[in-house]
Write a structure and sequence with these properties.
heterodimer; A: mainly alpha; B: 297 residues; mainly alpha; 3% strand; flat; disordered N terminus
Amino acid sequence: MLTAISRAIERRLPLMVVSPLFAVSLFFVYGFIAWTGYISLTGSRMMPSYDFAGLLQYERLWDTPRWYVALKNLFVFSGLFIGISMALGVFLAILLDQRIRVEGAIRTIYLYPMALSFIVTGTVWKWILNPGLGIEKVMRDWGFENFTFDWLVNPDFAIYTVVIAGVWQSSGYAMALFLAGLRSVDDEILKAAAIDGAGPWRVYTRIVLPSLRPVFLSVVIILAHLAIKSFDLVVALTGGGPGYATDMPATFMYAFAFQRSELGVAAASAVMMLMTICAIIVPYLYSELRGARK
Amino acid sequence: MRARSTSGIVRRSGPGAVVMRVVLFAVLGLFCLYYLFPLFVMVSTSLKSLAEIREGSFLAFPRDIGFEAWAKAWGSACVGVRCDGLQPYFMNSVMMAVPAVILSTTLGALNGYALTKWRFPGADIIFALMLFGAFIPFQVVLLPMARTLGELGLAGTVPGLVLVHTVYGLAFTTLFFRNFFIGVPDGIVQAAKVDGAGFFGIFFRIVLPMSLPAIVVTVIWQFTQIWNDFLFGVAFTVGDSNPVTVALNNVVNTSTGVKEYNVDMAAAIIAGLPTLLVYVVAGAYFVRGLSAGAVKG
């Protein structure tokens, strides 16, 4: 009798372990998304209210000039951040793939910024780009009297400082992913190409890089994901300023939720962010998981 | 011209190749400088006096090395109105990261094990649904989480942050362990089952001892993520319970008084040191975590 019970428990143990964890993620992920989604459809301002108001908050969101600034910044930042990080990543990965004896050490140096908090990165670059004492001063001391580099405090250019710091932090990551991809290219194909008389340039552009297409896709998705979520770096480097010139959706949402107490608009902006990420991540996860099962 | 192919790379010999080799190393070295110079600027600025900072170049080596800025950043710099330095906030981060890392890693290991080695109907769907939690923009959970922490009486506390990081770390830790356990042959588990070993028996005696690499990767990944987190820290804590990243940002952006760049830099190093040390000591595992973050194990 007792052994029958214990055996019945034993059989259900895996499910008993997984269920509470699954329930936790249902509640904290899906439940919370549903709550935020619902709040975005109400008239909530200071306090959450639960009376349905249709798309009112979305209308308000898309009537907010600051939201357009945030979106424009997101496009500018993502485009440059992803493009430059990838170009640098491929370039460095190819260079490192030339049988370098100190490859390990160099890779360590290229990748260490990834271990740092974006707040640390932002703090350092804020100092380097400081108009009074940073690069500008160095260039003037070197004799370029009229050299001006005030991007950090210039509303039209401040977003590019976020790109500079972001690329510094993440390009090594792209390099590491590309390097792993390069290492998995079949040697036999390369040997055959070399015997056919193809030079290194042609081997890379015609054979190696095309075969890395899945890696390119992964890197784009990872970097896009980082870009959409970027919050810390903006806060540390520019604080979203000057004014709200470097606002991004993530900082916009935070400002409206916790500083301006516009819960409805904040929720609507969070839902917009989620939908953007879903559009990128869900097809990717689907194909990865399906591919893994084969 | 003789062409050789070794480990996938086509190499030629001759004077042209030597020049190429020199250019290659020059470019690689230049990029080393590019990645290292912010670290150098951080360290050298933190060792200078304010006067030296104002006179000299930020790229110059410090003339007289002093640790006053470090002492101040650690023990007496003002974070908001409180002037105890980063020390109490550093401790907050320790009190936050250690339990959150242990909890999320343990639960992720159990979860990954149950989902791969004791497969039941729906296991794949459960995994896919949980995995999605690793990719959501956390802005979408900030408001309800703030309310939930309030209901639980954990608002503005370090244990509240432990809960948040455990819950949202679970998706990643499950992913890491699932990918690892998929590579463990089912035969080992099957044999143990035939011998009468149970769910936890197999886990503790067979699976766990062989998953040391997965544990190391997960612990490093989680520690780095949680230590470096800013969003949850700034949204869910106030003043005394701030983690060190939030305190660092407050030190740097304090608008009162003279701007002390040397103290800012020392504070940045202090906040970044734990994860940097982990990276230097266990870099290979860190890289493995990063590539596992690209979903594929």
